[in-house]
Design a protein that fits this description.
By secondary structure, the protein is mainly α. About 75% of the residues lie in helices and about 5% in strands. A two-stranded antiparallel ribbon has the order 1-2. Helix 8 crosses helix 9 (about 175-235). It is elongated and about 95 Å long.
Amino acid sequence: MLQKITPIVKYLLIVNVSVFFLQSVRPGGLEEWFAASGGTYMEAAQIWRLVTFQFLHGSTSHLVFNMLGLYFLGTILERSWGSKQFIYFYLISGAVGGLLFVVANTLGAFGVSYLVGASGGILALLAACAILFPHLKVLLFFIVPVNIRVIAAALALIYFFSVLRDYNAFGSNAGGDLCHLGGMATGFVWVMGRGRLTSLWQKHRTGSYQRKIEQVEKTQFEVDRILAKVHQQGLQSLSRKEKQILQKATEDQKKY
């Protein structure tokens, strides 16, 4: 069953398809300035490439499979997280994957000139959904339903061994697979870290609230004691500090 598309996913789909059309009009022209590279130190320093390479694709099948992943997985996450957090997650995860490729390529690890594709970000979506929605099923070859965690684990192993096997091998896709691994790792760390930070923040808020309640109770006890003293001995019996406490309690009460 098709899902209702979310805003950012819709815009990303439009941009990716439009850019691919421009690539077909001028083959190689966009890659020269916008693909992730690292062939030279100057290209490695062009940091905009870490974002722009995610909107370029090498073939129609490359584009179609990535956009299918973006539609199905991205829609789930954007609906769960909201548009702002989703787009940060998607682009940063893809950029981390691209950065790994650029660093490795600059050091001479891969025999390829550039990297294109949204796969790093898409695989980050896969990793995130595998953690957050463990019972989700993915149609393998559009026919066989397979648990999303099985798919994610299998792809991570395939990419890992691909990088080990084809390291420094001209013509392989080890560089692309390193980007895939980087995207998946970023997705995993992001989601796990997000849960941890949320838990710590909730504990902090609970602790702060408890301390505030204790302070209010302590102040109220002191005010009650001072009022009892005034009733028994008169206002002149109060010390300077007791008068200040009473005055502050009166001012705080006027605020509410």
